[in-house]
From TrEMBL:
It comes from Nitrosococcus halophilus (strain Nc4). Pfam families: FMN_red. One of its GO terms (molecular function) is oxidoreductase activity. This is BRAMP protein. InterPro entries: Flavoprotein-like_sf, FMN_Rdtase-like_dom. The keyword Ribosomal protein does not apply. Signal peptide: none annotated.
Amino acid sequence: MFYHALVLNCTLKKSPEISHTEALIRKVTELMEPLGVEAEILRPVDYSICFGVSSDEGEGDQWPQILNKVKAADILIIGTNLRQLTEHVRDNG
């Protein structure tokens, strides 16, 4: 049996720019591979995602493509860079 993991690499760097977040994600996916987990890594920054509150904001919105992958995945992992996380914690207590 195998599982499909979708990993959202929420770096601010577009592909193919080097991402330290992706380096860490790749270590995690390598550990999951022998356990029967096939991982797909996706960078949302490479897509045109429209602002809004619906699952499809209309023409040009590529979020529905990502959402379909999220729904189809057995495992969802969200990776973000530490700077974003530490600034959020610092600013919000």
